[in-house]
Design goal:
alpha+beta, single chain, 335 residues, six-stranded antiparallel β-sheet, 6 strands
């Protein structure tokens, strides 16, 4: 083990001793711990995950492709880059267009840069043949940026920034909320004309990477405000607030018990009123025409532990999203 890695691990252990690492609490905020064997199977260093072609940590491996969801997840203004690697000769099972199933060996990475500092890169890997056979860990970048080291317990204020790295168990607070377990690489998220250096749905169709390719892209309904609002709720709220969450034998792990459903579905895109968000939102949650008394607006407009929304991955209010959703509710018509 190199001196810089030993120094990094001492920092992690010191944070653990002082309670500075991330933890979960509350009646539905406790995620099932990741067993030691699963963590041991993950590479210790990011350089060993297959993301980069060489030790420079800048050139992608030839079988790794970049992508970006059309509706991004808010993480306190962090800049992100995302990549995927599918096993050679394998395709994504798209028999359920709302819950893609990925072949064993699929890897997805997401890199976070905060305040100009590259702080972490997360790895999500399909480790077995079953839908739930995923494992995840975050790699925290060393101060010299030459590599990143696995941090299964997470870390607060990584790289001297306000950015908090989640624990391995917390990863499935979001990813465990859908049958696919993959959030940003999906039919709806890739249904747009991405730049040439990014994969989109049409690229996957043209490359014969989907078992049942759709005839064309899917379009989120409504005017510009409605589409943006529905997309924001899908990306930032739908992994918790949806009625198709897979069963779990462990703790509830960020599974709110209510009827709200913000996850878009390809078969319910005929009009804004057909979407789950419109169908499940009661008058108290939205209060159409009256954003000041909307329960949703109140909860996204401040940060209060265990009460504010989104609950995970953010400590800073997304002011642009608040303005967008206020306008959406102001223009929303009562049935």
């Amino acid at each position: 083990m190199s001196p810089e890695v030993r120094s990094f691990l001492r920092t992690v252990l010191a944070a653990l001793a002082t309670g500075a690492l991330l933890s979960c609490s509350g009646d539905f905020e406790t995620c099932e711990p990741v067993d030691a064997a699963t963590l041991a199977a993950m590479p210790e260093r990011l350089s060993d995950t297959g993301l980069f072609a060489d030790a420079s940590m800048t050139v992608l491996a030839g079988d790794v492709k970049a992508f970006a969801p059309q509706f991004p997840l808010w993480t306190d203004g962090a800049t992100k880059r995302r990549w995927i690697r599918l096993p050679p000769g394998q395709r994504i099972d798209t028999s359920d267009m709302d819950a893609w199933q990925f072949p064993q060996g699929t890897r997805l990475w997401k890199e976070f840069t905060r305040d100009g500092v590259r702080v972490e890169t997360r790895l999500l890997e399909k480790a077995g043949p079953h839908p739930e056979d995923w494992r995840a860990v975050a790699y925290v970048w060393l101060p010299d940026q030459r590599d990143a080291v696995a941090a299964p317990s997470g870390m607060r204020d990584a790289g001297g920034t306000p950015h908090d790295v989640p624990s391995a168990s917390d990863c499935f607070g979001c990813h465990g909320g859908t049958r696919s377990r993959v959030l940003g690489f999906s039919a709806i998220q890739l249904s747009y004309a991405a730049s040439e250096d990014l994969l989109d749905l049409e690229d996957l169709i043209a490359s014969d990477l989907l078992t049942q390719p759709p005839p064309s892209r899917f379009t989120v309904p409504g005017n510009d405000v409605e589409r943006a609002a529905l997309g924001y709720l899908h990306a930032n709220c739908g992994h918790c607030h949806n009625q198709q969450r897979p069963e779990s034998e462990g703790p509830r792990c960020y599974a709110p018990e209510n009827a709200l459903d913000f996850r878009l579905q390809v078969g319910r895109l005929g009009s804004p009123g057909e979407t789950p968000a419109y169908r499940s939102g009661d008058s108290d949650a939205f209060n159409p025409g009256h954003p000041d008394s909307s329960r949703m607006i109140k909860r996204i407009s401040k940060r209060q532990t265990g009460w504010s929304m989104p609950l995970l991955g953010t400590e800073v209010v997304d002011a642009e999203a608040v303005a967008l959703l206020r306008r959406w509710i102001s223009e929303m018509k009562r049935d």
